[in-house]
Q: What sequence folds into this?
């Protein structure tokens, strides 16, 4: 960073935006990410020198910004990206955590991983090719993971003479498609990552575009929403009982608020037991507060001495989730070994891990065209499918649409601990207008 | 916690500042490990990242004591100020400290001194054996993903085999905030609560929380000599050599590690505020400026991680 008063303003508190990128090397994704880091002055002199040296040694005449982000030797040798990488940059207005995910077809699981914690996803397309199968796949993953904001970055505008009609047609096609999948907010931006148009600096070549640059949009998109409208949820992580002379009777339930807000004086239910009590105190890492909200880590104390342990969930007494042992969900399969009907697994939901069995895999979904394939029998790496899982103990499970944190779960192989699948309870998409939707059965599956 | 009014880019009543978000996430990680593991340990060197880790752990379990012990892999070339700080901190919080000593391994003939005098790469064996000996199943490290390109792909929960090896292809996808810590007997999990913090975040947090640091992080006069473009401290570890003149300069350290490979920077910053302003204006990343051992090759860190390094 150069030191200006603006840069030092950077030192005051800002919010943090977590976002993910999706797109392939051919679309110029590494160049876009490199450009964001470079033009926001987040690339420092020694990193740039290393990139320049590496570019020169390969006979490239200009520094290859993509090299800023290729981390592992195998990737550098093969010129591919094989895993999610996390990058950090800041502007005076906001801090950013970028989950940089490879967009190649067999890396669906990486994109799902990156999108799982993202508030925003940038989907990249090549202006010359427009919306292709892979673009539809990226839109579907963003919709499936309920990423609140999606940016369509139409790249390589310099190669189509910065022509507005080219951009407008791609933007319209993508917006129509993603809206049908229920993506709540879509912003399309024409860019050239290589030349720098509309990434950080406004483009002089596209007067016809009046919207924000990619970075301006990242800086201004809302990151926090009205939590009072959410169902409040608090998974208990750990019970704090000092049992010291100073604190002989302290019993606090430690955890991170998963959704909504909790107040002192509020009546809460403990799930799955259903017992109720009243919040007497909230300790917010060193200070006592009257209200706390997601995603704060706090310790909650209750009026009654009831049996509560790790894995239990606190919720407002009048707004508690139902408990269930029959989980119907969409999963993304993330392991090399398959997931089959009848398989015994562990299911990790919030702070609770229970034994479970895969009762049924009703369908597998092809993300390119959203067609579904009934009764595949098993799911393999990068498959997206519907599953029915029976758990050994009741879970206080929300739908993923209601709460990304209390509606998500992992399926784990009990034998070696491998994470098999990432699950999202309830319907797959926000809207049921998938292009190749089969007739809905009584379970209400919507693809 | 900061109050809402401190967050200047939003008027939402529910906004969290970036430091509050990061703090909340780190505390969640500490509590997750306490809930799921039998024998966790915090790697504590007396450097700023491990000091911040310890501070977060203390907050996560207050008013109770932290349910972990500490482990320091001592290269034998540590700054005396840092060792003194380490011991004082351990005593103050009534913690249990394990020390794995590189010097003892060298004295016993189990490790050989490198020709360049650098002992950082020698830490891997004592660390691995201490983990095996004490049967630690979760090992907290202060590593951050912004430090180095190989670390950018590191998980928060990083699975290691019985030889402590890191296999990038065996790492589990990490989704939402659901950390999978299952492991076979003999394996362990390295846990990085500061994964998403940057150097600047760490310093700002130290300032906000009023955390005390060893004095070598602040500008002071010291006898140093130049090697590989860095100011190194003269000492018994193998410097200066002939032709490396010793000079007195006003310097400070940005990272604290083995004296043989931790370089100082010219600085007049004697306060946290001044240090933060200097870092914000810096044109060099933390390791690039101060760590000789990461410059060995483009893939240096990746190779050492595979072998079980931090």
A:
């Amino acid at each position: 960073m150069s030191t200006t008063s603006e840069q030092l303003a950077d030192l005051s508190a800002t919010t943090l935006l977590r976002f993910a990128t999706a797109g392939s090397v051919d679309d110029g994704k590494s160049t876009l990410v490199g450009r964001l880091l470079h033009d926001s002055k987040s690339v420092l002199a020694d990193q740039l020198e290393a990139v320049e040296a590496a570019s020169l040694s390969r006979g490239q005449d200009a520094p290859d910004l993509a090299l800023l982000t290729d981390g592992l030797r195998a990737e550098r040798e093969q010129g591919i990206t094989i895993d999610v990488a996390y990058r950090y940059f800041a502007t005076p207005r906001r801090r950013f955590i970028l989950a940089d995910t490879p967009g190649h077809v067999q890396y669906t699981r990486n994109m799902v991983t990156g999108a799982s914690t993202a508030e925003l996803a940038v989907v990249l397309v090549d202006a010359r090719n427009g919306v292709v199968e892979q673009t539809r796949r990226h839109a579907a993953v963003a919709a499936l993971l309920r990423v609140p904001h999606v940016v369509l970055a139409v790249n390589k505008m310099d190669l189509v003479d910065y022509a507005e009609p080219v951009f407008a047609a791609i933007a319209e096609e993508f917006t129509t498609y993603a809206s049908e999948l229920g993506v709540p907010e879509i912003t399309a931006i024409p860019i050239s990552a290589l030349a720098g148009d509309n990434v950080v600096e406004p483009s002089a070549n596209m007067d016809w575009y009046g919207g924000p640059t990619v970075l301006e949009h990242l800086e201004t998109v809302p990151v926090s929403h009205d939590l009072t409208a959410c169902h409040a949820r608090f998974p208990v992580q750990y019970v704090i009982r000092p049992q010291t002379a100073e604190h002989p009777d302290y019993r606090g339930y430690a955890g991170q608020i998963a959704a909504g807000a909790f107040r002192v004086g509020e009546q809460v239910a403990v799930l799955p037991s259903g017992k109720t009590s009243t919040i007497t105190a909230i300790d917010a890492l060193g200070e006592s507060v009257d209200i706390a909200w997601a995603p704060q880590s706090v310790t909650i104390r209750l009026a009654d001495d009831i049996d509560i342990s790790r894995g239990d969930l606190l919720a407002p007494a009048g707004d508690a989730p139902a408990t269930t042992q029959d989980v119907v969900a969409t999963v993304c399969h993330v392991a090399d070994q398959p997931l089959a009907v009848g398989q015994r697994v562990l299911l990790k939901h919030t702070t609770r891990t229970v034994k479970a069995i895969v009762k049924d895999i009703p369908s597998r979904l092809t993300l390119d065209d959203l067609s579904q394939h009934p009764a595949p029998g098993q799911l393999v790496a990068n498959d997206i499918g519907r599953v029915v899982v029976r758990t050994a103990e009741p879970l206080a499970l929300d739908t993923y649409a209601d709460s990304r944190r209390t509606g998500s779960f992992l399926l784990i192989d009990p034998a070696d601990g491998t994470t098999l699948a990432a699950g999202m309870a309830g319907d797959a998409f926000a809207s049921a207008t998938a292009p190749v939707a089969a007739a809905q059965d009584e379970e209400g599956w919507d693809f | 916690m900061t109050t809402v009014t401190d967050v200047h880019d939003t008027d939402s009543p529910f906004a969290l500042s970036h430091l509050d978000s990061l703090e909340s996430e780190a505390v969640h990680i500490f509590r997750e490990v306490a809930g799921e593991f039998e024998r966790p340990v915090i790697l504590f060197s007396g450097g700023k990242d491990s000091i911040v880790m310890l501070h977060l752990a203390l907050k996560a379990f207050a008013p109770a004591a932290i349910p972990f012990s500490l482990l320091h892999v001592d290269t034998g070339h540590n700054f005396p100020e840092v060792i003194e700080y380490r011991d004082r901190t351990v005593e103050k919080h009534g913690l249990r400290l394990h020390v794995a000593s590189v010097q003892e391994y060298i004295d016993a003939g189990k490790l050989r001194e490198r020709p360049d005098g650098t002992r950082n790469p020698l830490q891997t064996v004592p660390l691995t054996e201490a983990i095996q000996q004490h049967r630690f199943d979760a090992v907290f490290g202060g590593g951050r993903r912004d430090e180095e390109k190989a670390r950018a792909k590191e998980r928060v929960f990083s699975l290691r085999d019985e030889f402590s090896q890191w296999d990038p292809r065996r790492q589990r996808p990490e989704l939402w905030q659901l950390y999978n810590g299952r492991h076979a007997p003999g394996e362990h999990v390295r846990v990085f609560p500061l994964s998403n913090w940057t150097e600047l975040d760490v310093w700002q947090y130290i300032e906000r929380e009023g955390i005390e640091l060893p004095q070598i992080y602040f500008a002071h006069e010291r006898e140093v000599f130049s090697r590989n473009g860095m100011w190194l401290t003269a000492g018994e570890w193998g410097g200066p050599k002939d032709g490396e003149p010793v000079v007195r300069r006003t310097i400070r350290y940005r990272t604290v590690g083995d004296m043989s490979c931790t370089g100082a920077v010219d600085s007049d910053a004697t306060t946290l505020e001044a240090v933060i302003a200097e870092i914000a204006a810096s044109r060099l990343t933390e390791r690039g400026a101060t760590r000789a051992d990461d410059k060995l090759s483009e893939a240096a860190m990746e190779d050492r991680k595979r072998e079980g390094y931090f």
Notes: DSSP finds nine helices and ten strands in chain B.
